[in-house]
UniProtKB/TrEMBL annotation:
It comes from Antarctobacter heliothermus. This is GMP synthase [glutamine-hydrolyzing]. Keywords: ATP-binding, Glutamine amidotransferase, GMP biosynthesis, Ligase, Nucleotide-binding, Purine biosynthesis. Its EC number is 6.3.5.2. ATP binds at S235, G236, G237, V238, D239, S240, S241.
Length: 525
């Protein structure tokens, strides 16, 4: 990753061979305050290794077979760096094959899912804290078709499982270690201990903290920006808020934030966001009140994809209009995170440094001749929140649920009208208030109300009503890629429905959406 060579922290290199869970390795290491980067094996050349100068290396898992000619390999020089190496699953097989062992394809010892590893005859420092629970074994997660049939010279066996006689191998003299299972996944309950022992043995000090990151990031922003102006599209979400606060700390009044109010925000949201940044943090914020423009163009539109396209196009037009009025603006700030960077440097597509554009400002840097400033591009989401705390952002902002760029437009299936948006805002506010009152907000990834394009008959007092139905949605998730509905109690749902019907004129029926993702999406459109 550009610009990281000057960071003085010890660095660990994860060479990615295409595993679906490589990001989890990085997460485990970051939790130990170890700075690490993931790079696809194709990009790891001799020159790269020399420049990166890792203090330790981890080989990830992967779907290929080392028995296939042309299968993914690291450069041979990695073994001559004199640093500890840990191979995981496919990474173990690569080490064995490269260093003189043997791997065979399949042949009856495939293992997928939960397995149990028994200790070998000898002790290994890497396994301190393992095999301690009285059963003398550890649960692990296996996912391999090939297996090691002969370990490389210098290696010994330190753990076995029924399907993997070489489940844990090591050459302590060279500090080379290899495991057939995945210690990074949740199904290897004691896996974090292995990583902790590995980085300790490698001599990492665990000094990569948010305080240190903040200081370095501020200096890097100053070096990049100089005395030029920076503009930032502020949505009020965690990523853009933390990016804005960090850049403001670095360059002060050289930063201007543009908050585009498209009339599709939650109750009091614009006032809260603008108020916090303008009054609480003294940032220069332009409140672009463009509700009439957006709602005018959305009038009568019911197709969800058309809604998204209209909102995306208008957002770019409006942002550009305000940005053009800022003299000397040469930089555009974006809240790109490390998962976006990893995904865009494709494992299968060969060397690539293209970074995905943020959905809100896609295409703008090229169109406006601006250079990107992406101060969060080395961080995972939980690290961004930790940095937000470090920068003094209120906890209520840092812990906010994600909110989509198109806002309430995609929570209003069918035609959007101002009346429906007003009903939706009020219902959503009651629902979130209920969730907070019951102490559930932080247990839920995202919660919201959708107003349904149907009216239903109801009875209120002595009268008949014919009003909208709404659906409550609440999900738990780690990263938004998959999600389960939150298991509210019936008491909670009954109490919330009663409050919405009593307090929000226009709704007379409340439902709860119990669809998981997949097959559903989190949002309704």
């Amino acid at each position: 990753m550009e610009g990281m060579t000057e960071i003085q922290h010890d660095r660990l290199l994860i060479i990615d061979f295409g595993s679906q869970v490589t990001q989890l390795i990085a997460r485990r290491l970051r939790e130990l305050n170890v700075y690490c980067e993931i790079h696809p094996y194709q990009n790891v050349t001799d020159d790269f290794l020399s420049d990166f100068a890792p203090k330790a290396v981890i080989f990830s898992g992967g779907p290929d077979s080392v028995t296939r000619e042309g299968s993914p390999r690291p450069p041979r020089t990695v073994y001559d760096l004199g640093v500890p190496i840990l191979g995981i699953c496919y990474g173990q097989q690569v080490m064995m094959q490269d260093l003189g062992g043997k791997v065979v394809a399949g042949e009856g010892t495939s293992e997928f899912g939960r397995a149990y590893v028994q200790p070998g005859d000898q002790r290994l420092d890497m396994l301190t804290g393992w095999f301690m629970d009285g059963t003398g074994r550890e649960q692990v997660w296996m996912s391999h078709g090939d297996h090691v049939s002969e370990i490389a010279p210098g290696f010994e066996v330190f753990g076995t499982s029924p399907g993997a006689p070489f489940a844990i191998t090591g050459d302590p003299a060279r500090q080379f270690y290899a495991v057939q299972f995945h210690p990074e996944v949740h199904h290897t309950p004691n896996g974090a201990t292995l990583y902790e022992n590995f980085v300790r043995a490698a001599g990492f000090k665990g000094d990569w903290t948010m305080g240190a990151y903040r200081e370095e990031a501020v200096q890097k922003i100053r070096d990049q920006v100089g005395d030029a102006k920076v503009i930032c599209a502020l949505s009020g979400g965690v990523d853009s808020s933390v990016a804005a606060a960090l850049i403001h700390e670095a360059v002060g009044d050289q930063l201007t934030c543009v908050f585009v109010d498209h009339g599709l925000l939650r109750l009091n949201e614009a006032e809260e966001v603008v108020g916090m940044f303008r009054d609480h943090m003294n940032l220069h914020v332009i409140h672009a009140e463009e509700q009439d423009l957006f709602l005018g163009e959305l009038d009568g539109v019911s197709d969800p994809e058309t809604k998204r396209k209209i909102i995306g196009r208008l957002f770019i037009d409006v942002f550009q209009k305000y940005a053009d009025g800022i003299e000397g603006a040469r930089f555009l700030a974006q809240g790109t995170l490390y998962p976006d960077v990893i995904e865009s440097v494709s494992f299968s597509g060969g060397p690539s440094v293209t970074i995905k554009s943020h959905h809100n400002v896609g295409g703008l840097p090229e169109k406006m001749g601006l250079t990107l400033v992406e101060p969060l591009r080395e961080l995972f989401k939980d690290e961004v929140r930790a940095l937000g705390h470090e920068l003094g952002l209120p906890a209520s902002f840092i812990g906010r649920h994600p909110f989509p760029g198109p806002g309430l437009a995609i929570r209003c299936p069918g035609e959007i009208t101002r009346d429906k948006l007003e009903i939706l805002r009020k219902a959503d506010a009651v629902y979130i208030d209920q969730i907070r009152k019951h102490g559930l907000y932080d247990d839920i990834w995202q919660a919201f109300v959708a107003i349904l394009p149907v009216r239903t008959v109801g009875v209120m007092g002595d009268g008949r009503t014919y009003d909208f139905a709404c659906a409550l949605r609440a999900v738990t998730s780690v990263d938004g890629m998959t999600a389960d509905y939150y298991p509210f109690s019936h008491e909670f749902l009954g109490e919330t429905a009663t409050r919405i019907i009593n307090e929000v004129k226009g709704i007379n029926r409340v439902t709860y959406d119990v669809t998981s993702k997949p097959p559903g999406t989190i949002e309704w459109e």
